Structure formats: C-alpha cells, structure tokens
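Duplicate of #3305? Posting structure anyway:
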C-alpha cells in the first residue's frame, strides 16, 4: 500500500476526492475497509476481486456500498492480482492501493478441530477486531501521504492487534458462551504424540496423492506447529510511527461480532424460507 501526493489539491475548501483501489475487496476485512473509505467522503473506491461481477451479500443491498455503486462513488473491477495485464488496467488512475487480497487458507472441520486441545493449551494469541485493522490501514495511508512519512515508513511492516493477548482456548470459549453454549469438554493431546502422527499422516497422503487422494488441511505438521505456538506481537512501531491505537476493545468487538452473526443468520434463514 502506498500513497504520494504533494499538490494538496483542494476543492470547495476540502481535499479533492481521489480514487483508491482495494484488492480482495469482497473479503471480510476488506468489506469493512471499503465501507470506511466510502464513509470518509475522501475516496472513490475501485472494488477489485476475482469474481466476474459483484454480488452483494445479505444486508448489503440497502447499505453504503450499494448506493456508492449506483452513484459512481464505487466501481467494481474483476482483477486477478497474479495477472499483470489485469492489475495494470484495474489500478489505472488510482492514487492508493490497499492490498488486502490473500490466498484461501483451506477449509476447516470446525467441530472436529475444536474438540481437541493440542499441546498444553496455554499458548497465547493476539486477536484483533476488524475495525481496528481498518483503522490501521487508514493510519498507514495518512502517514505515507506525506513526504516525511513516506521516507520514515515506506516499505516497513507493521503489526496491528488489539494489544490484549489472551489464551487461544479461553477466547474460543468466550465466543461459545456469547452464542449461548456451555464450555465443551476438551480432550488434551500431548504434543509428543500428535506431532509424529501429523508427519505420518502427511507421508501417507504423499503416497495416496499418486492415486488422486489429497491431504485434508486439518492435521498437518504446520497446523500442529501454529496451533501450539505463542503468537503475540508488538504494535509499538505502529503506535509510534503511524499513530495507531485500537478503537474497539476485544470484548466489545466479540459481542458485536456475535450479535451480527446471529442477526445475519436469522436474516438468511428467513430469506431461504
């Protein structure tokens, strides 16, 4: 992501509306980013993703994006970021690119995966509410929009979290309780047992691959490794250089997420009926 503008163009006493592009714009975080950019009134947004046409999801038909697509504040472009011609055409005339596209990490069997705790279950993660990630992108753009900020922050990587690290399994339990479920009984599998098993499974599927049988992404050495690691990160650089600070506490974000999930689930259920 980068931006550079030195002319300070002003129209009617306010900065001129400019074009930006968001890659992977139909993804979860990117949808929130697109909405924030449109709400700011500072941007026209080129919404880019792989699909040949945009299809608005439940709750979006009356929302900001639908209005923006109708009045020209947003346009959709089908862009594969691995295709240079499509990227060149899709980004033509934009001042800023917010690159949020990512590869599909694979499907998970949620019920099976969360029945077991791999390792001692004490590892911590740094979770983050989606609006805080959006604010991190906006802070980064503001910094990179100045010559001094571009020199200081251009090309650097920044961690954006809620800065509230907690035990991974405690977090999943909180989600379950917010949804009205009791904490399930967990089966703990020592790392010394599950790690060699994951290598055996991987080896077995390498043999079966010759016969067109692919390895499920649930039990792999990489999954076992990252399930048991402490994954906490320092946001100090983002705080000092971008001015970032979380705006939504983790518990508030969790409650909002669960409420949104229940509301959308009920809306889809009523629509299908």
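Output from current build:
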């Amino acid at each position: 992501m980068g931006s550079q503008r030195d002319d300070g163009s002003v129209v009617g006493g306010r900065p001129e509306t400019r074009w930006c592009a968001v890659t992977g714009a139909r993804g979860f975080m990117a949808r929130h980013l697109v909405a924030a950019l449109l709400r700011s009134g500072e941007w026209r947004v080129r919404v880019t993703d792989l699909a040949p046409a945009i299809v608005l999801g439940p709750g979006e038909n009356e929302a900001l994006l639908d209005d923006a697509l109708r009045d020209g504040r947003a346009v959709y472009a089908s862009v594969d970021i691995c295709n240079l011609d499509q990227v060149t055409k899709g980004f033509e005339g934009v001042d800023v690119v917010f690159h949020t596209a990512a590869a599909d990490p694979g499907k998970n069997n949620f019920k099976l995966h969360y029945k077991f705790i791999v390792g001692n279950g004490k590892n911590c993660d740094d979770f983050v509410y989606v609006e805080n990630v959006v604010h991190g992108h906006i802070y980064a753009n503001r910094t990179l929009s100045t010559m001094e900020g571009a020199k200081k922050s251009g090309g650097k990587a920044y961690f954006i979290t809620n800065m509230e690290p907690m035990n991974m399994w405690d977090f999943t339990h909180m989600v379950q309780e917010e949804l009205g479920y009791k904490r399930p009984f967990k089966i703990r599998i020592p790392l010394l047992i599950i790690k060699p098993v994951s290598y055996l499974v991987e080896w077995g599927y390498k043999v079966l691959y010759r016969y067109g049988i692919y390895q499920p992404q649930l039990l792999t050495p990489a999954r076992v490794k990252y399930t048991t690691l402490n994954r906490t990160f320092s946001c100090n650089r983002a705080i000092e250089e971008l001015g970032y600070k979380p705006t939504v506490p983790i518990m508030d974000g969790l409650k909002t997420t669960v409420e949104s999930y229940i509301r959308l689930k009920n809306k889809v259920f009523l629509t299908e009926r």
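Confirmed duplicate; merging threads. Residues 10 and 16 are 5 Å apart (CA to CA). Strands lie at 10-11, 14-15, 18-23, 43-49, 74-78, 96-99, 116-118, 124-125, 166-167, 187-189.
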